Automatic annotation (TrEMBL):
<keyword id="KW-1015">Disulfide bond</keyword>
<dbReference type="InterPro" id="IPR041846">
    <property type="entry name" value="ENL_dom"/>
</dbReference>
<keyword id="KW-0472">Membrane</keyword>
<keyword id="KW-0812">Transmembrane</keyword>
<feature type="transmembrane region" description="Helical">
    <location>
        <begin position="172"/>
        <end position="190"/>
    </location>
</feature>
<dbReference type="GO" id="GO:0098552">
    <property type="term" value="C:side of membrane"/>
</dbReference>
<dbReference type="InterPro" id="IPR039391">
    <property type="entry name" value="Phytocyanin-like"/>
</dbReference>
<feature type="region of interest" description="Disordered">
    <location>
        <begin position="131"/>
        <end position="164"/>
    </location>
</feature>
<protein>
    <recommendedName>
        <fullName>Phytocyanin domain-containing protein</fullName>
    </recommendedName>
</protein>
<keyword id="KW-0325">Glycoprotein</keyword>
<keyword id="KW-0449">Lipoprotein</keyword>
<keyword id="KW-0336">GPI-anchor</keyword>
<dbReference type="GO" id="GO:0005886">
    <property type="term" value="C:plasma membrane"/>
</dbReference>
<keyword id="KW-0732">Signal</keyword>
<dbReference type="GO" id="GO:0009055">
    <property type="term" value="F:electron transfer activity"/>
</dbReference>
<keyword id="KW-1133">Transmembrane helix</keyword>
<keyword id="KW-1003">Cell membrane</keyword>
Amino acid sequence: MGYDQRNWVAYTVLLCSLVNSSYSYQLLVGGRDGWVLNPSESYHHWATRLRFQVNDTLLFKYKRGSDSVLVVNKEDYESCSVANPVVKLEDGDSEFRLDRSGPFYFITGNKARCDQGQKLIVVVLAIRTSPSLPSPSPSPSPSPEAPAPDGPLTPPHVKPRPRSLAAPPCTASVFFMSCVLSVGLGLLNFRVFS
């Protein structure tokens, strides 16, 4: 393989990696049904078949004035308590950005409908970082008796994504694989026609 071919391959792989790592999505909660009491696909099933990443955005569509979306802690999620939401969304086309990894808890602002199942848990995947070199001396770990930090509960994370309302969970990996395939076909093309 010549010098020009190696550069072409390296630049293509670098470009594919950069585009793949910076992609995020907007997801329509409940699919075409939106944020309703009995969607055709349960919110639990919808959330478990998708992979949520930091900076994805959840879009809750519902009739303004007739419902709302509350971001709550785990206890309020389980009891359907609408009294102390972390965040209240009520404009009918509510967007929520997943800004961290971990679980996010959403319930309707109508307690009776929450008790009937209009609620959602979204778990955002952890951000993967490249492993770092070990430090010469490990830092001391905190003692088990250390108190937990006090502070406000961070709302569940949702990642901003392009304006498409539905995206398959493997979009980024499919894109990356298509880049790898393009590189392979490019190399084959160079060998056949060189």
